[in-house]
Write a structure and sequence with these properties.
The chain has 168 residues and is mostly beta strands. It has two domains: 1-26; 31-167, Immunoglobulin-like. Helix content is 9%, strand content 42%. It contains one helix and 13 strands. The protein has one helix at 3-17; strands spanning 29-30, 39-46, 49-56, 63-65, 80-85, 89-95, 99-100, 107-112, 120-127, 137-139, 143-147, 152-153, 157-167. Strands 1, 4, 5, 6, 9 and 13 form a six-stranded antiparallel beta sheet that branches. A five-stranded antiparallel beta sheet has the order 3-2-8-11-10, with no helix packed on it. The longest helix has 15 residues, at 3-17. It is globular. The chain starts with a helix and ends with a strand.
């Protein structure tokens, strides 16, 4: 490979690494600026109760239950549950024999402070939790809510990932 081509490839790799080029541009959506280093509030909404855990996004699990987090009052299945916020994603993971979110309203996760360079315009869902669909999601410019009412997490490893997108 000649030196010119190596330099061009290095510039493209660097631009992708720092987010100067969009990772996706289908239908006018792009991967937003990174949430790494931002402070996010994670709430569990359960009937008339609400918990709040604030954390700085690291790209590693920020909330683990069982643990000393307020959310663990409601994420109290005996096995591990985690919340991880990444550069432009939110992932919930459950490891265990299976559990059930009670059929009460609300029974939801709310993420606030998702302050990207532009407002959230779309949220894409990847999951293996039966019954969890994009109709369970709602969002604003900087919040996302996931309705978990009555859903079963079958285990041994259940998850959902939300990919946040903004407009060009």
């Amino acid at each position: 490979m000649n030196l010119y081509r190596k330099a061009a490839m290095a510039k493209i790799a660097l631009a992708l690494a720092v987010g100067a080029l969009p990772a996706t541009a289908a239908a006018g959506f792009v991967r937003p600026a990174s949430l790494i280093g931002e402070t996010v509030d994670f709430h569990v909404l359960f009937q008339s109760n609400e918990t709040t855990d604030s954390f700085v996004v690291t790209g590693k699990p920020e909330v683990e239950c069982p643990g000393n987090f307020a959310a663990c009052q409601y994420l109290n299945a005996p096995k591990l549950q985690t919340i991880e916020v990444g550069a432009a994603s939110i992932t919930y993971r459950y490891k265990g024999p299976g559990a059930q979110f009670q059929e009460v309203s609300p029974n939801a996760f709310l993420f606030e402070g998702l302050n990207l360079s532009k407002p959230i315009a779309a949220v894409k869902l990847k999951t293996n939790i039966p019954g969890l669909t994009e109709s369970n999601l709602s969002f604003t410019a900087n919040t996302v809510q996931v309705d978990m009412e009555g859903l079963s997490v079958p285990g041994p490893r259940s998850f959902f990932t939300l990919e946040l997108e903004t407009r060009l």
